[in-house]
Amino acid sequence: MNNDKRPNPSSERSKKWLTESLLELMTQTPYSKITIQDISKNADLVRQTFYKNYASKDDILENYIGSLLVNFGKKFFEENKFDMKTFLKSHFDFWSNNSEFLELLIKNNLTYLLDKQYKKRIAKLVDVLIKKKFDTDSAKHKYALAFMSGALVNVLVEWSYSGLEYSIDDLSDLINIIMTGQYFANI
To answer: Which of 22, 51, 174, 176 has the greatest count of CB atoms below 10 A from its CB?
Structure first.
């Protein structure tokens, strides 16, 4: 028996179509009003195909956000320059290029999905940035990851509200100063 864990091409294609369908619908309809039937019909698939791949429409977005963050991580690690300022610049540049999706999440009050995926995926990045391993089961590390993911998501939301008017370099410098404690040092 073949225990190969390769993705099923048909399932991957259906997931892609369902994701594209949901994102398209979100540009026209509030997320709360979009049904599984709407997503499936717009993708020219039956509802059973949806349920073979996802449990809910949130799962589509979580999967998509997860893949975006994986792609961001790959690009960041390819740069091979692991300091906070480079990370922040890469991070804001990445979301500047994905600002339409970010705006859809914000408009539909779905940034909690972004935060959830950040918490899942940020540990490896944080470990590289701080250049040492912590006990990932420690309360300190969990709080540090929650702080980092919450800060990054909330800064993205605020930046989006301002129309991305703050330059990526200036924003990266500011957040780096805040995260290194320099911003509040003179208070």
So the answer is: 22
The CA-CA-CA angle for residues 137, 145, 147, to 5°, reads 135
Amino acid of residue 69: L
For the segment 46-62, what is each residue's pLDDT rounded down to a tens digit?
999 999 999 999 999 99
Q: What percent of the chain has pLDDT over 70?
A: 89
CA 26 to chain centre: 17
Using alpha carbons only, how large is the chain's radius of gyration in Å? 19
Name the 3-class secondary structure at 44. coil
Contacts of 82 (CB under 8 A, 6+ apart): 128, 129, 131
Distance (Å, whole) CA 17 – CA 40: 9
Q: Report the alpha-carbon distance of residue 139 to residue 124 in Å, rounded.
A: 17
CB 76 within 8 A of CB 88: no
| pTM score of the predicted model | 0.85
Question: CA–CA distance from 64 to each of 23, 69, 86, 139, 167 (Å)?
Answer: 10, 9, 24, 29, 26
How far is residue 96's CA from residue 5's CA, in Å, rounded to a whole number? Answer: 34
Nearest to 95 by CA among 178, 16, 158: 158
